[in-house]
Write a structure and sequence with these properties.
Helix content: 55-70%
Radius of gyration: 19 Å
Oligomer: single chain
Order of helices and strands: HHHHHHHHHHHH
Number of strands: 0
Amino acid sequence: MKLFFYTPIIVIGAFAALFAVEKLIPLRCNSRARLLSRLVVNGVLSAMAFAVAALVVRPSAVSAVNWASAKPFGGMHWLQMPPGLEFIVGFLLLDWSFYYWHLLNHKLPWLWRFHNVHHIDPELDVSTGFRFHFGEVLLSAAFRVIQVSVIGVSLMTFAIYEIVFQVETLFHHSNLALPIRLERLLNRIIVTPRMHGIHHSQIRRETNSNYSVVFSWWDRLHRTFGFNVPQSQIEIGIAGYTLPEDNKLWNAMIMPFAKQRDYWHKPDGTMPQRKGDQR
């Protein structure tokens, strides 16, 4: 399908635009001194993640879509909706089910080992968007096969969702400071940088909020929506992995396979908390 051919072009264009604009109007004061080292680590991890996605995840998902269409199998085939409605419902179900996959990556210890590599980035910007451990991406292949088979989406719906999914992932990880009124308006529908910034907080209850990827509705529906936290007060990262060497490339790659630390206490034993928060 031609859409898959255009996906990298669209994603690279979105990355370049956001990378440039977030430097002009930053949401958080990121360190320029460590930008280059972060870009190297994030770039290599992202490249490995993309390689696994291209070689395993996408072919598996496309095969599952084709299999479900041939049977036919899955909700969209059984309900036999008009094409337009089928696209809308299928798109929404893809995004809703991905909310649960993201939630599982935080709740299941063996998945969190891998997903934590994404969260230990000490700063948050567009380069964090695809910084995922290749092991997490590989594990997601099984989820993708189940997801598209059970929902029974068309290949067109899947391809369009993939483009929106990837561009939105870059957008809400970006360090872009939107006018607050515009961001609040957008956040009624989609995940925005301020909303996702809270998800990357070192405070446990804030990290365990805002799991949505495209539409912000799912967090409101499941009461996992976090808000009203000023970005200037957010410490980005995971408290137990804030040592400078934790974000070295090799350490990030082997981290899921090493003995895990206490995630929520800093190396000095203190636990990040919001002022007045006793939880």
